[in-house]
Write a structure and sequence with these properties.
Oligomer: single chain
Keywords: Amino-acid biosynthesis, Aromatic amino acid biosynthesis, Glycosyltransferase, Transferase
Strand content: 5-15%
CATH architecture of the largest domain: 3-Layer(aba) Sandwich
Organism: Prochlorococcus marinus (strain MIT 9211)
GO biological process, one term: L-tryptophan biosynthetic process
CATH superfamily of the largest domain: Nucleoside phosphorylase/phosphoribosyltransferase catalytic domain
InterPro entries: Anthranilate_Pribosyl_Tfrase (IPR005940), Glycosyl_Trfase_fam3 (IPR000312), Glycosyl_Trfase_fam3_N_dom (IPR017459), Glycosyl_Trfase_fam3_N_dom_sf (IPR036320), Nuc_phospho_transferase (IPR035902)
Structural class: alpha/beta
EC number: 2.4.2.18
Strand order of the largest sheet: 4-3-2-6-7-8-9
Number of domains: 2
Amino acid sequence: MNENFSQERFKNHLRKIGSGEHTSHGMTRKESADALELILKGSPTPAQIGAFFIAHRIRRPEPQELAGMVDTYIKLGPKLHQNQELTQPICFGMPFDGRSKTAPIYPLAILVLLDAGQPIVLHGAGPMPVKYGVTTEALFNALGLCLTKLSMDAVQNGFVKHGLALIHQPDHFPLAETLISYREEIGKRPPVASMELLWTAHQGKHLLVTGYVHPPTEGRHTKALEILGEQNIVTIKGLEGGTDIPISRTTKATHINNNHEKHLILDPLQYACQGKDIRWEDLDRWRLISMQALNGEGPLAKAVVWNAGIYLWLAKISDSIADGIQKAEVSLTSGSAKATLQQLIKWRAEID
């Protein structure tokens, strides 16, 4: 593709979103997809890319623009295929720049879900601007499980065998790694950070769960996912914009299944799960309280039970939240979730 032609084409996209409050226009889904593809392939100049990200950040991406960006990630990114014998997985969309305020719950809740036969798809990256929070990779490493430095074939095989897949950007999507310097240099999350919460490499039917902080974000995400044709969606006002459900307060969530929308009020007090959201300190402390939780003990155990119980219910493995909570408690206190972790560690060691 002629470089000058690509830069001129990108300039047209930039004009649409960067003209100002009264003259700026949103891109179509197709135009947004084209803009991100040009960026990933390095066609625009660095000045154009930086201007695009800042302009988009200020005016906020519209739902069809987010859908277009997801289209490009689906086109150029890695693909994880569904095994017909597997239960439909839960695909978690969490911020790529990690957690820095509250202790993550999801690695432990995921072990409970896997123990119940529920497949899980995750995606993430290495330490990422602007937050540089703790990553999924680092958390599982702290538990003794390395989920990185695997080929996509190895990830696919592990998904089929054990029901867990981590799509790791440095390993599986090097094109997207080229955007990291822009995140650092502009000092703000670019629009792709919103899109990453909606994209999954999984091909086939699944439950897609995405977190948010501000209510307008939920509306944009829901509309974008509907444009993309996602049939089973959960949006959660989670901790730090992720999918971890707090135990310190009532949480709002929305479940859309085959165009049927249901608003959920998740009240931990109602299920004797209310408590304090544990503050993030460091990986050593997190590992200690995580291993305690895998024995059904310690300050993180209640949050793990609450989260796993809700997700077991949303995945229809449990008939109710109360039933899900009971199953989660048994998984921890019996040592079954910990045994699931050991099986995964053994699988990973056999690959090396």
